[in-house]
Design goal:
- By secondary structure, the protein is an alpha+beta fold.
- It has a domain of 86 residues.
- The chain contains four helices and four strands, in the order ββαβαααβ.
């Protein structure tokens, strides 16, 4: 599922839901089909994403030897870091924050994309009822 982020200051950006989810959660936002980040929320949102990225980098820096072995085993494995994936959203937030007029960032997806749902958007059938 794709999530479309829109800002009058920087245009439109698309992100896969599984990529957008941790960034929105870090900002304290629900992964709903529609949402908004107001200009007043943007400084805290930027700081939250940066904290999230820092925790990822410190957690991943320890097992370097194991990581090298995995890279050798699977050369087709994508090598796009979370920081690289976050950059367009961070840039959008920064540009919108610097705007002299009141700007917001809106996001829209075809359905809610919380982690309690599978790829089809249905609740996981294997969970206890």
């Amino acid at each position: 599922m794709l999530v479309t982020f829109t800002s009058s200051e920087s245009g439109t950006m698309l992100m896969f839901a599984e990529v957008a989810r941790p960034f929105l959660k870090a900002m304290g936002k629900d992964c709903s089909a529609r949402g908004v980040i107001t200009q007043a929320e943007m400084p805290a949102a930027i700081a939250a994403i940066e904290r999230y990225l820092k925790t990822l980098s410190t957690a991943k820096s320890a097992p370097k030897a194991k990581e090298k072995e995995e890279e050798e085993e699977d050369p087709a494995k994508p090598r796009v870091s979370a920081a690289q994936r976050a950059w367009p959203l961070l840039d959008m937030l920064a540009r919108s924050l610097k705007s002299k007029k009141e700007s917001h960032i809106l996001w829209e997806a075809s359905a809610d994309f919380s982690e309690d749902e599978d790829e089809d958007g249905d609740e996981d059938e294997h969970r206890a009822t």
